[in-house]
Amino acid sequence: MAVCVTLTVLNLVLLFAVIRKLRDQPRHPELKPQTLAPGTAVRQFEATTTTGATITEESLTSTVVAFVSPSCAPCRDLVASIPDLVPRLGEPLLLVVVEELDDDTRDAVAGLDGVTVVAGIESTALTTAFGVASYPTVARVAGRLVVSSGGKLTDVLDRVAS
Fold first, then answer.
1. How many helices (H) and strands (E) does the chain have?
2. Residue 158: exposed, middle, or buried by beta-carbon count in 10 A (0-12, 13-18, 19+)?
């Protein structure tokens, strides 16, 4: 009986030590967005936009491509910045939504010139062609090569203007 009580007390002491250690950890560590290395070639793909047009890797002559998921907070921030930043890009924006297009995203890009949207199952071809594994990811493409990339539109904005 004494051994059982001793082991229980020891277990509780260790448990409280682990809990204290976990509380000292940052709650939401700052994750670095995935970036695509400059010079990365975009592989072949074919996808249909939300307006029914077909795009391929050949149509990305000079384009900014943004990959987002409506279920992630940084992606929602990126989508909210589109109306303000698209006029400053100076290049068309291809918005790749990896889930079905939600109302907030649809409203953010409605009526904007120079924005093309690929959503849902059609986005799979693009995420594979670019090798995207985290969201948001933004890449500036010239020819079939990634020129610059980051996690926000502003990451490629400075490079577009130069």
1. 5, 7
2. exposed
Q: What is the pLDDT of residues 107-162, one digit of tens each?
A: 888 878 889 999 999 999 999 999 998 899 999 999 889 999 988 888 887 654 44
Backbone angles phi, psi at 120, to 5 degrees: 65, -140
Compute the distance between CA of residue 81 and CA of residue 59 in angstroms, rounded to an integer.
Answer: 24
Say if CB 94 and CB 64 are below 8 A apart: yes
Pick the CATH number of 46-161 from 2.40.50.140, 3.40.50.300, 3.40.30.10, 3.40.50.800: 3.40.30.10
Domain ranges of the chain: 46-161
Q: pLDDT digits over 62-105, tens only? A: 899 999 998 888 999 999 999 988 888 888 999 999 988 888 88
C-beta of residue 57 within 8 angstroms of C-beta of residue 144: yes
